[in-house]
Specification:
This is Sec-independent protein translocase protein TatC. This protein is mostly helical. 77% of the residues lie in helices and 1% in strands. It has 2 domains: 2-206, no CATH class; 207-288, no CATH class. It has 11 helices and 2 strands. A two-stranded parallel sheet has the order 1-2.
Amino acid sequence: MSDNKLIKAIKDKGKTMEAEMSFFDHLEALRWHLIRSALAIVVITSFVFYFYDWIFDTIIMGPSKPTFWTYRMLCALGDLLHRPGFCIDKINIQLINTEMAGQFTLQINSSLIIGLTLGFPYLLFEIWRFVRPALHEKERKAASGFVFYATALFIIGVLFGYYVITPESINFLSGYTVSATIKNLFDIDSYLSSVSTLTLATGIVFELPILVYILSNLGILTAKFMRETRRYAIIVIMVVAAVVTPTPDMMTMTVVSIPLFALYEVGILVSAVVEKRKLKRAQEDGLV
């Protein structure tokens, strides 16, 4: 009897050691995925740092110049609609640096931000490679387009934030004054923070359908719930649009709100598709 207990204890210990080894193997695999992602971001950041002069003048400072694409399109739209008020031909912005190492840290910080932004798709790819082996064949097929759709939505969001929200916000905030006795002189770090925050925040917000997909697969969110709470979602979207675009212009707020409404409706469709797939899978397995 004691021999059986001893053998059972040895087997249990072996299973425990095997599980522990498996856990540490997963940690090791995750570590290498993260290392590769970090290396990719470092390479992109170094590339941005090397070509910084062009990137700074063209991309970072782009929204502060009247020749920026968005302002030119607004002028063209104003001419088409005979609304000269649409045209923005002057940006009242003066940037200063107040720290000894300010411009050097500016180059490092902005290069890193751009490196993280451009390296985000590869990071998603590495995360997918880590998660993929743990999924069943059906789950792999269902989530096969995860990296593509997540990357596409992020890029669209970043471009929307950079070409729509950022220039409108900069134009408004740079010219806003409480009193004529106060002169607007903006620190370069404040400018960079505004551009990067508005751009990246929009890219993250555009990942809403991906979040809905994950929550729907977990059974936390349903298409029915999203339809029933649509009226509340509209209020939240309007509040978000008002915060993201600190301008009194209703036109700008509407332009920002429309894509958010569209994303919410896409989220409903995504949730409905996930529910249909889950129901079909349950029927195939004989659970329904």
